[in-house]
Amino acid sequence: MKVKEPFFWVNISCGIIIMVFILLPLLEMLTAPSLSMVKETIKDKDVVRSIWLSIYTAGLAALFSFIFGTPLAYILARTNFVGKRLVESIVDLPIVIPHPVVGIAILSVAGKNHWIGEIFSDVGIRIMGSVTGIVVVLTFVGLPFYVNAVKSGFENISPRLENVSRSLGASMTSTFFRITFPLAWRSILIGIIMCSARAISEFGAVVVVAYHPMIAPVLIYERYEAYGLSYSQPVAVWLVSICLILFLVLRILTLRKGKSS
Amino acid sequence: MIEVKELFVELGDFRLDNINVAINKNEFFVLMGPTGAGKTVLLEVIAGLIPVRKGYISIGGKNATTLPPEKRGVGIVYQDYCLFPHMTVKENINFGLHYNKIKKGIAKDRFKRLVQNLNLGHLLNRLPTNLSGGENQRVSLARALMIEPLVLLLDEPLSALDHRFREEIREDLKKLHRDSDTTFLMVTHDFAEAISLADRVAVMNEGRIEQTGTTEEIFRKPCSTFVADFVGMKNLFAVKFCGTEARINYLTIDVGYSPPEGCSYIAVRPEDIVLSLKKLDSSMRNAFSGTIKGLIDRGFYYEVWIESAETIFKATITKRSLFELALSEGMNVFFSFKSTALHLF
Question: Homologous superfamily of A45-215 in CATH?
Answer without folding.
Answer: MetI-like (1.10.3720.10)
